[in-house]
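This part of the workshop introduces the protein records we will be handling. As an example, a complete record with its sequence and its structure tokens follows.
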Amino acid sequence: MLKKRLTLRDIAKKANVSLTSASMYLNGKARANHISEKTCARIEEVIRRENYQPNVNARAMAMKRTNLVGCVMRDSLESSFWADILAGIDEMLAPENIHLLLTVSSGGLEAEMQAFEFLRAKGVDSYIWIPTVKRDGSNNYEQIREFSAERPVVTLTSLVEGLHGVAVDDEAGGCLAARHLAECGHRKLATLGGSRMYKRCEYFAKEAQRLGAEVSAFKHIEDIAPAIRDFTAVFCFSDMKALELYKFCAEAGVHIPADLSVIGYDNLLFTDLMLPSLTTIHQPKRDLGRETGKLVLKALADKKMPPEQIKLPPELILRASTGEIRV
């Protein structure tokens, strides 16, 4: 038989205090309302003895909050990249009894807005959003800014003007890769992949050119394939792109790093297991999540705070896929 849930009235009775005093203590307002330490001690003793667990839903209703944060994603959850980020967010929100409600909008801009409408209907207290930008540059920025007037919106992995956000500094990441290859003597370089949202390949090219290198840009493996032997190193937009390049090089007889140095981006779990192990730019994924969770809590506590944007530093992870150029 299930044990009856202890109510606020029960706690007050067992502690021999007023209902008001018990309520003030449970809501963290005892000191502000001058509830004596002796009274607080009696209430705390009952809570410990009875193993009291507050009714989170009832408290949320009383505070006109659902304790839900909606997260609008545009990618699947299969990648360890997102798993680490979500774990970091939960690490910050869970102690506050706040929970994530996830949606995955893989159908473009319309699906993204449908996800926001769904979460609004669920009464979420705040939104976490991984923005989408189509190839023609179209996006939902203005519509999402309207949502932010009702509830805080925190962007994740990219920054949008007028909104809170947390991202890794892509410019710093691109420059780290360019400087490493320059130090290894590489001057004929290529980039593979790219995105309208993330400009790391452009930042890489700009820094590499400043350091005296020639840089060519390619979107897909089939684009770079005919010219692969014209380059001594390739900077890949992501570790997944680097994995594609490894496969092509193995089939084409191009040896890494003897014939071609390769750098990835993200530092996913498998990169240390690749042969040779992949030099890559590490994105602090767990920290991305933690900082996002902290910013959500901060915005919920002060809904009038001006937009705050945080950039985290990336790190160059040196492994076996890059080396000095062989003359």
Q: What stands out?
A: The mean pLDDT is 92. The radius of gyration is 26 Å. DSSP finds twelve helices and twelve strands in the chain.
